[in-house]
Amino acid sequence: MTVKKTSAENMETSCGFVALLGAPNAGKSTLLNALIGSKIAIVTHKVQTTRSRLVGVAVHGKDQMVFVDTPGIFAPKKRLERAMVAAAWSGATDADAVVLVVDATTKISDATRIIAEGLKASGKKTLLALNKIDLIKRDTLLALSADLNELCSFEETFMISAKTGNGLDKLKDKISDYLPNGPWLYPEDHLTDISERMLAAEITREKFFLRFHEELPYAATIETERWRELKDGSVRIEQVIYVERDSQKAIVIGHGGQSLKAIGKLAREELQELLDRKVHLFIFVKVRKGWSDDKERYRNMGLDWVQ
Ligand SMILES: Nc1nc2c(ncn2[C@@H]2O[C@H](COP(=O)(O)OP(=O)(O)OP(=O)(O)O)[C@@H](O)[C@H]2O)c(=O)[nH]1
Ligand SMILES: [Mg+2]
Q1: Thinking of the domain 7-176, which architecture would CATH place it in?
Q2: 217 lines ligand 1 (CB under 6 A)
């Protein structure tokens, strides 16, 4: 016997957590921003840009989807790397569904293999998203999809471009199937849990990542230390870039302060747009040897301390 649903049941809302997992540089943060329609996660062409979990909220029909962007998963060595990878896996633990994001323009990386196997062992409902399809021909995707589906039996495979938005609606339609019925966790227009102070530090870190090469981006952490609303409606923000050594400090500041000024200008412009008011941004560079073994820095980054 079929029971006809009442209109009240038809209107029932759903809400749940969806973790975005993948190798470094797969496009998870770009995807998070596209899914919620706003830039809250920083994006660069470099690996290990994202350092901690970040929540972005989207409404899709009667469903509220709480997406969790995570650091890329790889074989970690240093303490900071281990904390990042631990944060990524824990993002999946409480999720109702996981989306494994894979850069479809390259062959399957060891990192992707490890994640697919880990997800298989976890028994989590996992969707596969082959990303960056704007860069490749669709026919090359079939072999990649088959190979990945051998590693883990995905619920369904999607071909998407986080950059153009292609395929994202279909992905959201499917995600809806995995969300438990229940009230929304957040108000309708809620976008993220990240504080303005943290987001401001992340914006500066993005400019920092884009400006410097090799190990320097990984040798620094950035914190917003002061945030003062001024009477004229503008805001004064003070930030600190912590580096490991004096030689790094000299590079960050640059000849005649040129490098630091350039980063500050780009960060300030983006902050002004985001906050929709004038921003006075002051960035200081401090040497803190061993900051990556300093518990307080982890707390400020939103990471759990790992032994
Ligand atoms: N062409 C193209 N580029 C993309 C797409 N998605 C992401 N990218 C680019 O891929 C690079 C990495 O993107 P991110 O979103 O930072 O990747 P991520 O997975 O968050 O990286 P980590 O935080 O380091 O783990 C950036 O240069 C993005 O612009 C896409 O769909 N198409
Ligand atoms: Mg990222």
Answers
A1: 3-Layer(aba) Sandwich (3.40)
A2: no
